[in-house]
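Render Adenine DNA glycosylase in 3D.
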Amino acid sequence: MTPFAKAILTWYDAYGRKSLPWQKNKTAYSVWLSEIMLQQTQVATVIPYYERFLNRFPTVTDLANAEQDEVLHLWTGLGYYARARNLHKAAKEVAEKYQGEFPKDLESMNALPGIGRSTAAAVLSSVYKLPHAILDGNVKRTLARSFAVSGWPGQKKVENKLWEYAEQHTPNTDVDKYNQAMMDMGAMICTRSKPKCTLCPVSTMCESNKNGNQLDYPGKKPKKEKPVKETWFALLYHDNHIWLEQRPQSGIWGGLFCFPQKEDQELATELNKRSITESTIDEEKTLIAFRHTFSHYHLDITPVLFKLSKQPDMVMEGTKGLWYNLSQPEEIGLAAPVKQLIESLPFEIN
């Protein structure tokens, strides 16, 4: 075991997190679920979602047997919805291909939808104590500073160098504790903007601490100005119901329910497709526009509320839609701005 690993483990025994919900009664399913939720999301945000999911789907087979709409509904608000779709696909694969038992080899685990090398290693090391290195965002930051690895970790050569250090220092014993300790280090000590170097167990070994340039590591992603796109939402309302349509599985908000939308202000064509004409519209009201930001662009949304005199049939070929009951909401996955608008509707309608 390297001096670096020994120091990290000693620190973990004294200060590491040991009472997170997924650390109790650990199973491959519960750890995998937590790891997927923790991708790009903080622990405090994840905990209530994790507990709801585990309560509703106690086993991977329960999750596999669920409808995707229900999975997306429980995920609503957690963001990065491709994670939820892949979670459901992976559960089905585990249930069907592996009879409800997660594989214990890295290659098979890594091949499951939405998992990847680091997540696969985190599950196998945590549950089965197999000596596999991990490299999530917290670990990348800690290693980049400790060993002065220059460059943005999104670049392959930088990531490969970090993997080398991760593998070099991951011990064969206590690997479950070590990997958790490395995640805790990044979350508690080697934080993004204000690292607590005086409390760090490896500060005397840390290259960036010696040089006083901790914030230079890891390197920043080359900045690109986010483009701005525009869209208009048609909020079709009648008798305390609002019309929603399920989006295609691929693309933004894949599989989630959304309002009919158009990339320009001419919503009339979208309404005509749904058998809505001027004679069926009692009132039209443009609501306050707002911005929704994705990882790669900004989307400026202008919602337009249409109060209808009657509820049209709304049959559109290839589209799954429903009249969403505002008093008794269905359990379906909603795009974040749709959820936001639905919550504000009572104030706009009255």
